[in-house]
UniProtKB/TrEMBL annotation:
The keyword Cytoplasm does not apply. Belongs to the carbon-nitrogen hydrolase superfamily. NIT1/NIT2 family. Keywords: Hydrolase. InterPro entries: C-N_Hydrolase, C-N_Hydrolase_sf, Nit1/2_C-N_Hydrolase, UPF0012_CS. It comes from the Bacteria. GO terms for molecular function: hydrolase activity, acting on carbon-nitrogen (but not peptide) bonds, in linear amides. This is Amidohydrolase. Residues 1-251 form the CN hydrolase domain.
């Protein structure tokens, strides 16, 4: 059995300028003084929380520059890094919201593109959200092995679609990453119960690094980055301040929870019960 390892979520109030947001990440890593193995998780749109989605398309053409710098950071600090989302090119007027996972020598070991896009009216003094205007939806789930356990990648609005998480658990997921930029209105009502439900029903650790506060682009986000145990317990909550929270992953505890309450084996909505 693998020993306990550290997971970290960095809560951010990203502005529009990548170099400023990147510098914030570097300062956080300098302060953290991490022991290995450690997995550092960043929020959705951490590198650039743009004024318009057209700006995200424009930036997507140059973001490989930052990806190369992230590889070096992983090597320098000996960390695994789940880099929230970064806009990467899709076609002339669309990007994909790519969630990249780097290992501790700076290799990209997984890329998940956000599947569920936030085309939603929210009573928060905005005109509503139309993410699909300039973002192309991902089409594939991503579960990947790591020293921390099997990691399933997802992003923000994905949290509302439990079928995605069931599919990742079917592929062996033990940790669910949910980098986010939740609205304050939906966050206050839904964020924590949704995350707890996914942790409990999937019997997985959940690491949800979030954006917080009033951003340079005028948006407001809910914060409360959370680390949850597979029992649904809140291990750490970043509340409404920027900075890092930490938790320990114990796969022996996860196995014990799954052995005592084998909900995956009991699930009547799996095809083997119909055939
Ligand atoms: O657009 C960017 O630059 C970064 N991306 C976001 O902020 C995304 C799309 S608008 N936000 C969400 O998915 C919020 C979901 C949410 O709040 C809910 O499900 O209630």
């Amino acid at each position: 059995m693998r020993q306990a390892s550290k997971v970290i979520a960095i809560q951010m109030c990203s502005g529009v300028e990548p170099s400023v947001n990147f510098q914030y990440l570097v300062e956080q890593l300098q302060q953290l003084n991490l022991q290995q193995p450690a997995l550092v998780c960043l929020p959705e749109a951490w590198l650039a929380f743009c004024h318009t989605s057209q700006d995200s398309v424009t930036l997507s053409a140059t973001n490989t520059y930052w990806i190369e710098k992230l590889k070096l950071l992983c090597r320098e600090y000996g960390i695994w890094l789940a880099a929230g989302t970064i806009a990467l090119p899709y076609d002339n007027d669309r990007y994909v919201a790519a969630s990249l996972l780097f290992n501790d020598v700076g290799d990209i070991v997984a890329q998940y593109n956000k599947m569920h896009l936030f085309d939603v009216e929210v009573d928060d003094n905005t005109q509503g959200y139309r993410e699909s205007t300039h973002c192309a939806a991902g089409t594939a789930i991503e579960v990947v092995d790591s020293p921390f356990g099997k990691i399933g990648l997802s992003v923000c609005y994905d949290i509302r679609f439990p079928g995605l998480y069931q599919a990742m658990v079917d592929q062996g997921a033990q940790l669910l990453l949910i980098p986010s930029a939740f609205t304050t209105v939906t966050g206050a009502a839904h964020w924590r119960p949704l995350l707890q439900a996914r942790a409990i029903e999937a019997q997985c650790y959940v690491i949800a690094a979030a954006q917080v506060g009033t951003h340079e682009n005028g948006r407001k986000t809910f914060g409360h980055s959370l680390i949850l145990s597979p029992w649904g317990t809140v291990i750490a909550d970043a509340k409404d301040t920027c900075g890092a929270i930490q938790g320990d992953i114990d796969l022996a505890e996860l196995m014990q929870i799954r052995t005592k309450m084998p909900v995956q084996a009991h699930n009547r909505f799996k095809s083997e019960f119909y055939e």
